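Lab intake sheet, docking and co-folding queue.

SAMPLE TYPE: protein with bound small molecule
LIGAND NAME: magnesium ion
LIGAND FORMAT: SMILES
REQUESTED OUTPUT: full 3D complex as structure tokens
PRIORITY: normal
SUBMITTED BY: R.K., bench team

The fields below were copied directly from the construct record.
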Amino acid sequence: MTSNDNGTASGGTAVKDAPGNAAPLVELRAAGKSYGNVRALHGVDLAVRPGQVTCVLGDNGAGKSTLIKIVSGLHQHTEGEFLVDGEAVRFSTPREALDRGIATVYQDLATVPLMPVWRNFFLGSELTKGPWPVRRLDIERMKKTADEELRAMGIVLDDLEQPIGTLSGGQRQCVAIARAVHFGARVLILDEPTAALGVKQSGVVLKYIAAARDRGLGVIFITHNPHHAYMVGDHFSVLRLGTLELSAARSEITVEELTNHMAGGAELTALKHELAQVRGVDVEELPEEGDVQVPAATPSDGTPDGTASETSSGTASETSSGTASETSSGTASETSSEKTP
Amino acid sequence: MTMTQASAPAAEPAPPDSPAGRKDGRATERSVARRLLARPEVGALIAAVGVYVFFFAAAPPFREASSLATVLYQASVMGIMTLPVALLMIGGEFDLSAGVAVTTSALTAAILSYQLTLNVWTGVIVALIASLAVGAFNGWLLIKTGLPSFLVTLGSFLILQGANLAVTKIFTGNVASDSISDMDGFDQAKSVFASEISIGGVNFKITIFYWLVFAALATWLLLRTKFGNWIFAVGGNQDSARAVGVPVKFTKIALFMGVGLGAWFVGMHLLFSFNTVQSGEGVGNEFLYIIAAVIGGCLLTGGYGSAVGPVIGAFIFGMVSQGIVYANWNPDWFKAFLGVMLLLAALVNLWVRRQATRR
Ligand SMILES: Nc1ncnc2c1ncn2[C@@H]1O[C@H](COP(=O)(O)OP(=O)(O)OP(=O)(O)O)[C@@H](O)[C@H]1O
Ligand SMILES: [Mg+2]
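RESULT FIELD (auto-filled):
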């Protein structure tokens, strides 16, 4: 991991990035979104270029999901501009985004619990065969494809006919990811895809992200885990209370700074003192504001992940902060060989 | 995993293909019996056999073939309407206007043909358009307002009920429409909508055959087409369905229009059977359709069910309503019996679903 700090990143303002100057597939310009009188997002700039991973980080409620819901067509922006291929658009349904090759793994996974796994996999993009009056589902092909895609993720199910609601939270997440990877032709959006996953599957997801990037897709990767983000990210945007707190290219920031930005330096220090009151928590290795001690499986990355687990769609018990930090260290070795700095 | 298991019924009827052979070797494959029990209509089938045996024993006239024809006829008139109502229910919505919509359709054809002295087929076509329009209106209002369908269709129920009576009175000065039996095209239309077919000396009403054909079509639609997939999805989780690109609005409006289509068909049958239409008819039938769908294993909250189940549900309804007559009981008991059936069916379905999803 490179740690060349040129000092511009810590300014807290949006920094226009440089690497890979291909035209953005998807771009937000001063975009914002209000839910009634709740201003969830305001003045956000974001560019997703082919062959790049844009990571979006931030606390709970920072507006990350809101941001990607604009891009995926679930919500519409209420201010600023949203461009796809340089052309201003306003999607009224997710179908329009999908038709432009933008596929999303939503935080709540967007599955229908009572429907079989394979039907969920192809929901909304069903394969059919035969001429019109008798055009019907190509069940064989759909089952086969779903099975292959899931196996590629390391998920083997006894029965694709079982309702997806009977799968574990992590398995459901894998189905949602495999589905998006299968249908995302140009842009892949992942909203906390590793929140409920074990070490192996998290590693697979990071590999998928790297593979999608290498195939020339633009990826938006939302995570609470700066180490996951840094392993695959080319550009990092940190949101805070709906505005962009940081926007930096990989070359402009280190993982320590990223961690610091995410937690909010001062808050982290306060947290450290708070934790010191609690017996059994080792605060020695927690970073101070300014001089940030490093990464890996210290309690420091347990903190953001601990909050992540609270929001991960009903599977909270599966991501204790313990497994989360285990995850980041476990996948480090699996993916670091793949990434291109 | 335990989180959703208790409430989640199994997948809809498994297509023949069994993915045996590829497994992770952990969970034992659900047994054939369990898989069978997982089908939404199994509870209803058990109940239907029970009811049949009961009346077979209790009411000797029930055993005759002509009685079967009567039972089936009764079941078919209701069953044809139950099918689209069941599909709508699987899609997560109700239509309380379904009962009076049948009368509206019949009145439209009757009054229009009679007043303008047209060929009855003109009335039939206009009634079809009117019925589809009522369905589309219900669906459109639901989508536009975001109100629950219970409320939206309660409104259209009252509107149609009132309009049926008032409009009929304006044109005929009476509560019934004028007889159209001597008008052009009547005999032809009657042979399409209300004729009889004789099999082995027993006359079966043509609606029985339509009913079974429609049920087969509905099954195919549900399990083998894109649209069927969308029906389950919008009923099971509307937001998820939308997020992955299912045209939720289109699906819901189409389902309401399907109910309109059913209302038109049954309305035409009643019109050409009786030549005239009582404008106050149909009130309360909407609940019978819903009851038959629930007895047939459709989940009241949507996302689960079949088309075969409602066929069995309507058959149970036919057996009960005629069986009571054949057994020489007071027909007033019919509703009470139906209530008991509904509760039993709901319990059996609940039990069956628990059995099926336990592994
Ligand atoms: N549908 C909605 N209606 C009203 N307010 C909403 C809605 N969705 C989100 N919000 C508000 O917008 C803000 C940002 O929410 P968002 O879901 O984007 O956060 P997030 O960054 O994804 O958080 P998390 O890490 O918990 O997923 C929150 O304050 C939330 O209350
Ligand atoms: Mg979120």
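REVIEWER NOTE: The interface with chain B takes residues 72, 74, 93-95, 98, 104, 106, 108-116, 119, 122-126, 128, 135-137, 139-140, 143, 147, 156-163, 165-168, 179, 314 of chain A (CB under 8 Å).
SIGN-OFF: pending second check by T.M.
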